[in-house]
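Researcher: I'd like a structural prediction for the single chain below. Treat it as a standalone chain; there are no partners to consider.
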Amino acid sequence: MDLSLLFTLSLCWWTAAARSYWSDKPKIILANSEIKDGETVEITCTLPIDYSGGECRLYREGSHFPFRVVHEAGYLCVFYVSSTELLGRRPVGSLVLFTCDYHLQEYTSMHSDIGGITVTGTSPSPRLSISHRLLTPDDKLEVTCFPPLPSVSSCSFYKDDYPVAQGSCSRNLTGKQLSLFWEKPAALVPVNLTCRYFPHQGLEVRSESSNHNQLFVLDVSRVSTSMNCSVTVEDDQLEAFRDRSWTSVGADGQTVTVHVTNRNLTTTESCNNILP
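Model: Treating it as a single chain, here is the predicted structure.
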């Protein structure tokens, strides 16, 4: 047999065998690992070799039937999947696992590694109540998050965007807990406190943020002399400060009296002066 003919036949056999037995896997790339309900995510399935003209198929974990199919163009297949398509019959808040493969005529690739995207959701805002607005580091603050639901999984409390406690929707927090999240130790720490609730155990669903409550933590041990000073708060917060004046006494006898005002009032001495 002519050697060139033999080589050609061998090459054809190798190509056919490669189409039947090639074991390399596609790779799956996620634009985001978490999206909100109502959003769309981009998922890319990359092919290790160029078998033009086939189909890329996206599967939810455990299913033998693809829920999205796109025609391949080069080495990339791009899926744009809405949160509704991604979830199928799963509830909002679920982590959805999926894989992809590539199909051309008699050839089907292995499945890719497993990818996962969480579809998060939100519920109506709760109401936050706190027992008082001015406290020392050792004082206890009673905080209660009131969800508009009969029962919830848990609640979280936040100083600005930093979580300070999670679990029970009614608890005590100390002034020290609330001031630990400040950038550096200070004599007077302003705190904007909010809460959220989680209605379902095991699902990434949380409420919108509650109303914010402003309070102050005063550490007299950081002050060397007695003084009077004032702090300004927003008009919508001023009403909640029933005691507009508050005095704390340090271990060495020094006192600091804090006067709470709104932005329309001016005083000669600001509490910013006691910051180290």
